[in-house]
């Protein structure tokens, strides 16, 4: 398997989870959100993560992105073991090496498009290269909107700003959590096509959590979780096949 498989010994993966467990609560209220989960995500791959409600998708994303700590196992980001880092190191790693795209855009309304895109570089105290910034703005189709504020943009354009902001630090991986959840289907398809392009043309790595079979069909493969564990992987997904698989998994 070229993007998803069992852990190997090399640092060739963008993200590698080894025997990751995450349990919430204690005693009778204990919930095992992830159970001994091992998964790898290849560099330059686009993976959708799907599964029934409560399967552990968000927990996987949070643990893989250093937003939450597993109780057991390890998470490697391009060879760095996140479980060995303290909070300050994790914050720095998230800023410099990970891009995030959320359903709710999370742009700062008082800043211009350009300032929003540059923000991760400023927070990481990195030099802002004008040519790179222009390249990223062109990449997402917003070069002529750099002076606008988020409120002056459509939902799809705001999500493109969020994607530019995620790209600007040249991250090891971009995590997208329901990136089209707030968009109408046509605008959503444009955003998904852009995510696929930044993988296919620019070699980025994208891991996207979604409930939507159409969104998942833009990925190169879909990883299905059930009950905190890996269930199966589908290569070259189509919306129809993903929907059929979800119906079966939800019935388990
Ligand atoms: N902070 C928390 N405290 C207690 N239980 C939690 C917490 N976060 C998640 N869980 C539980 O862990 C399990 C996995 O949750 P998670 O949000 O990862 O699933 P999901 O697949 O993303 O679900 P959905 O599709 O509904 O968003 C669920 O049973 C959930 O109730």
UniProtKB/TrEMBL annotation:
<protein>
    <submittedName>
        <fullName>ABC transporter ATP-binding protein</fullName>
    </submittedName>
</protein>
<keyword id="KW-0067">ATP-binding</keyword>
<dbReference type="InterPro" id="IPR027417">
    <property type="entry name" value="P-loop_NTPase"/>
</dbReference>
<feature type="domain" description="ABC transporter">
    <location>
        <begin position="15"/>
        <end position="252"/>
    </location>
</feature>
<dbReference type="InterPro" id="IPR017911">
    <property type="entry name" value="MacB-like_ATP-bd"/>
</dbReference>
<dbReference type="InterPro" id="IPR017871">
    <property type="entry name" value="ABC_transporter-like_CS"/>
</dbReference>
<dbReference type="InterPro" id="IPR003593">
    <property type="entry name" value="AAA+_ATPase"/>
</dbReference>
<keyword id="KW-0813">Transport</keyword>
<dbReference type="InterPro" id="IPR015854">
    <property type="entry name" value="ABC_transpr_LolD-like"/>
</dbReference>
<dbReference type="InterPro" id="IPR003439">
    <property type="entry name" value="ABC_transporter-like_ATP-bd"/>
</dbReference>
<dbReference type="Pfam" id="PF00005">
    <property type="entry name" value="ABC_tran"/>
</dbReference>
<dbReference type="GO" id="GO:0005524">
    <property type="term" value="F:ATP binding"/>
</dbReference>
<keyword id="KW-0547">Nucleotide-binding</keyword>
């Amino acid at each position: 398997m070229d993007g998803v498989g069992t852990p190997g010994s090399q640092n060739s993966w963008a993200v590698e989870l080894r025997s990751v467990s995450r349990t919430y609560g204690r005693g009778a209220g204990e919930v095992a959100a992830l159970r001994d989960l091992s998964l790898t995500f290849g560099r330059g791959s686009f993976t959708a993560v799907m599964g029934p409600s409560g399967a552990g998708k968000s927990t996987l994303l949070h643990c893989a992105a250093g937003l939450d700590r597993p109780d057991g196992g390890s998470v490697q980001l391009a060879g760095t073991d996140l479980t060995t880092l303290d909070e300050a190191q994790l914050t720095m790693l998230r800023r410099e090496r990970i891009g995030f795209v959320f359903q709710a855009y999370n742009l700062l309304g008082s800043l211009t498009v350009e300032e929003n895109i540059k923000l991760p570089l400023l927070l990481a105290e990195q030099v802002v290269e004008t040519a790179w910034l222009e390249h990223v703005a062109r990449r997402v189709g917003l070069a002529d909107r750099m002076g606008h504020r988020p409120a002056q943009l459509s939902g799809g354009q705001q999500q493109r700003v969020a994607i530019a902001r995620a790209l600007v630090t040249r991250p090891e991986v971009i995590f997208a959590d329901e990136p089209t959840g707030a968009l109408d289907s046509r605008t959503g398809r444009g955003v998904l096509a852009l995510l696929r392009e930044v993988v296919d043309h620019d070699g980025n790595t994208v891991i996207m959590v979604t409930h939507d079979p159409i969104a998942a069909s833009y990925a190169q493969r879909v990883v299905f979780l059930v009950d905190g564990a890996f269930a199966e992987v589908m290569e070259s997904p189509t919306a129809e096949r993903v929907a059929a698989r979800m119906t079966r998994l939800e019935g388990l």
